[in-house]
Amino acid sequence: DNANETTAGGFAGYQFIGAEAGDNAGVSVSSAGDIDGDGIADLLIGAYGADGGGLQSGEAYLLYGADLALADAADGSADGVIDLDNANETTAGGFAGYQFIGTELDDRTGRSVSSAGDVDGDGQADLLIGAYLADGDGSNSGEAYLLYGADLAAADLADGSADGVIDLDNANETTAGGFAGYQFIGTELDDRTGRS
């Protein structure tokens, strides 16, 4: 409860709160590595009970480490408390982060989140987001999404709007270099791929 206490240099840390009751924000947290290539580590926070893509479709949030103060101030108060609904606030350089939306009712996206390292060898970290109850190949077969850090803007634009919100249905959108990422689908009923 004291993570957001004021110090001489600002705050001792930040407190992240879910956007809605029942989101279960923070059920999974991870370093994202350095997604934006600025030399500062970024954060991933899962909220598998969020309802952005339907009841308990789940969400995950990427917050850029260098832009935490901007995300904090987005609600009009620089108090060390970041409402995850402000993860995709606009900054001078783009967004403070991204919000990833589960694609279907009860997917439970965000139950697991992790840095994937630099899978595509471009020098930027990539992300893994699990949706363990997704029904891609049968009820609760589960899905996992690999998103290339350098291609998040392309995945964001796939729905026609650059708003910092990425529907994970667009994870495998085509970009100039190939795909923005990949969608992995469990092969059998109740595999729960992406649970971790």
Structural class: mainly beta
Total number of beta strands: 17
Task: Name the strands of the widest sheet in spatial order.
Answer: 4-5-6-10-14
Overall shape? globular
How far is the first residue's CA from the last residue's CA? 28 Å
Q: Give helix % range.
A: under 10%
β-strand percent reads: 35-45%
Tally of separate helices: 2
The biggest beta sheet is recorded as:
5 strands, mixed
> Which stretches are poorly predicted, pLDDT < 50 over at least 5 residues?
none
Rg from C-alpha positions?
16 Å
What is the mean pLDDT?
89
Output the helix-strand order: EEEEEEHEEEEEEEHEEEE
Structure commentary:
The chain is mainly beta and 196 residues long. Helices cover 6% and strands 36% of the residues. It contains two helices and 17 strands. The protein has helices spanning 68-73, 152-157; strands at residues 6-7, 10-11, 15-17, 25-33, 42-47, 59-63, 81-83, 90-91, 94-95, 97-101, 109-117, 126-131, 143-147, 165-167, 174-175, 178-179, 181-185. Strands 4-5-6-10-14 form a five-stranded mixed beta sheet. A four-stranded antiparallel beta sheet has the order 11-12-13-17, with no helix packed on it. A hairpin with an 8-residue loop joins β11 and β12. The mean pLDDT is 89.
Main attributes?
mainly beta, five-stranded mixed β-sheet, four-stranded antiparallel β-sheet, 6% helix, 36% strand
Would you spell out the secondary-structure blueprint of this structure?
Layout: E1 6-7, E2 10-11, E3 15-17, E4 25-33, E5 42-47, E6 59-63, H1 68-73, E7 81-83, E8 90-91, E9 94-95, E10 97-101, E11 109-117, E12 126-131, E13 143-147, H2 152-157, E14 165-167, E15 174-175, E16 178-179, E17 181-185
Parallel strand pairs: 3-7, 10-14
Antiparallel strand pairs: 1-2, 4-5, 5-6, 6-10, 8-9, 11-12, 12-13, 13-17, 15-16
